[in-house]
Amino acid sequence: MVKIFVITYSTYGHINKVAESIVEGLKAVAGVEVGRYQIAETLSQEILTKMHAPPKPDLPIIQASDLPEADAYMFGFPTRYGTTPAQVKAFFDSTGQLWAKQALAGKPAGLFFSTASQHGGQEVTVMSSLPILAHHGIIYVPFGYANAHLFDNSEVIGGSAWGAGTIAGGDGSRQPSPKELEIAKAQGESFAKVATKLAA
């Protein structure tokens, strides 16, 4: 069995919704075991309440020490000015001991993301995350244009060759669309096939 961890940080739930389809795609490939985790929140409940953030899902909090257990990773998070949220950065900042041992080297990872607007930095968010993967020796696996919805210009659709994505809207009211979720499922399946080949 190839063990793949799907690790997310989500303030308003959009990324967690996309992650459900990612997991569905991963599980469509034989020989894959999926672990589902979330990154710890660093904001206080007082601040989250003022932000009108919903309660966090009932998922285990990922610890740096958990990462070596997996053969591959899919990370999902929203963009913050074209880069990772502080919570995600704080998590990766805790992986120094793993980096020193190159404990994650050679393992593949895929990324998926959300932004408020169409031009909110989905692709640059991935690009700004690549140095983290490179320093760990983690192999970044892009999605490519492996789903026809990525060519659809008839409506707003998140995602790109870099990975699945959703557009949340400025007030967070827009939820992942059926086409965005289909893209996410396709990415999960595509990534699982790559991960199983590398594990072999």
TrEMBL record:
All residue ranges annotated as the Flavodoxin-like domain in the record: 4-191
SUPFAM superfamilies the UniProt entry points to: Flavoproteins (SSF52218)
GO molecular function: FMN binding; NAD(P)H dehydrogenase (quinone) activity
PROSITE patterns tied to this protein: FLAVODOXIN_LIKE
Cited Gene3D superfamilies: 3.40.50.360
Top-rank lineage group of the source organism: Eukaryota
GO CC aspect terms: membrane
InterPro entries given in the database record: Flavodoxin/NO_synth, Flavoprotein-like_sf, Flavoprotein_WrbA-like, FMN_Rdtase-like_dom
Similarity remark: Belongs to the WrbA family.
Family matches, as PANTHER family: FLAVODOXIN-RELATED PROTEIN WRBA-RELATED, FLAVOPROTEIN-LIKE PROTEIN YCP4-RELATED
The protein's name: Flavodoxin-like domain-containing protein
Annotated source species: Coemansia thaxteri
